[in-house]
Amino acid sequence: MGQLGTKLKQARLDQGMSLEQLNERTKIQKHHLEGIETGDYSSIPGGFYVRAFIKRYAQAVGLDGDALLREHNNELPEDEPVTAPVEHLTRRPEKKRSSSGPVAESMPKVLVALFIVFILLVIWYFYLLSTSGNDVQPEEESGGVEYEAQPEQQPEAQPEAAEEQEQAPAEEPEEQPEPEEPKAQLELESVTGETTTYTFIGPAERQLEFAANGESWLTVLNDDGTELLSLARVFEAGETEAVDVSDEASVFMRVGDYAMLSIELNGEKVPYEQQRKPQNIIIRFDDAE
């Protein structure tokens, strides 16, 4: 038994805490807690999780986890470096919707002009009717020679033109088609070593969902290296968790056992391109236009 495990176990016993109670408080499995106390870290997947579990154990029993890790660093396995992608994607500018065409803008002016022309033609038509009422001059009392006044020629085509303009229907502006909703696409970008990279093109609102049918550890990091899960932890059979990644440019996931953990993005399953334990999955996000 190492000195680090002895200190942690003694602190637990001083508080009268059993391993079952410590398991409830830290959410670390009992056989991992026993391995930490005996200095046997073979059941814990990697140095990163050994340090994380020891720190959580120390906080639960009232010890300074960081100080213990520095003091007993030589007793711990080497930490595997986990690097998350830091590049940021440039969002495409949204295209402005085109406004109505020039025909729709000038249509009200054309209708007003046609209405004015129609009113003028109606006035001219009634004026001609009123001036053509008296066709014959009255006889003179002195018995002079009778004569007939020549009737004035009346324009006949103008009223018909006015009626045609009145009956002509005004052209209606064409309706602009509504833009279609963006379709979500998950495209395979590359497979390098133990890392598979995807590009997701779809809605700005995004959610990752994890469901375990057996034991598998998992960590999910953003561009800044911040853990997005409630805890970087080992999933048990039947456990699920959802993570909102709407504000992230990309996410990095390290999966312990791919056969025991399924991943979905906006309800669509994320496939495992490799059958490796462990393996990394990177998803870059690009909003659809």
Characterise this structure.
The protein is an alpha+beta fold and 289 residues long. Among the domains are: 3-75, lambda repressor-like DNA-binding domains (434 Repressor (Amino-terminal Domain), Orthogonal Bundle), CATH 1.10.260.40; 185-287, no CATH class. It has 7 helices and 10 strands. The strands form 2 sheets. A 6-stranded mixed sheet has the order 1-2-10-7-4-5, with no helix packed on it. It has a 4-stranded antiparallel sheet with strand order 6-3-8-9, with no helix packed on it. Strand 1 and strand 2 (195-202) form a beta hairpin. Mean pLDDT is 79; it is low at 82-90 and 136-142.
Task: Offer a quick outline of the entry.
It is built from 7 helices and 10 strands. The protein is α+β, with helices and mostly antiparallel strands.
Secondary structure topology:
Layout: H1 3-14, H2 19-26, H3 30-38, H4 47-60, H5 65-71, H6 102-131, H7 157-167, E1 185-192, E2 195-202, E3 207-212, E4 216-221, E5 233-235, E6 240-244, E7 250-255, E8 261-265, E9 268-269, E10 279-287
Parallel strand pairs: 2-10
Antiparallel strand pairs: 1-2, 3-6, 3-8, 4-5, 4-7, 7-10, 8-9
Helix pairs in contact: 4-5, 6-7
Domain Cytoskeleton protein RodZ-like C-terminal: 210-276
GO molecular function: DNA binding
Protein name: Cytoskeleton protein RodZ-like C-terminal domain-containing protein
Describe the global form: rod-shaped
Which H/E pattern describes the elements? HHHHHHHEEEEEEEEEE
Helix percent band: 25-40%
How far is the N terminus from the C terminus?
60 Å
Rg estimate, integer Å: 43 Å
Strand content: 15-25%
Oligomer: single chain
- Major β-sheet profile: 6 strands, mixed
Content-based structural category: alpha+beta
By DSSP (H or I, 4+ residues per run), the number of helices equals 7
Low-confidence parts, pLDDT < 50 over ≥5 residues?
Answer: 82-90, 136-142
How confident is the prediction overall: mean pLDDT? 79
Please tally the β strands and state the result: 10
Strand order of the largest sheet: 1-2-10-7-4-5
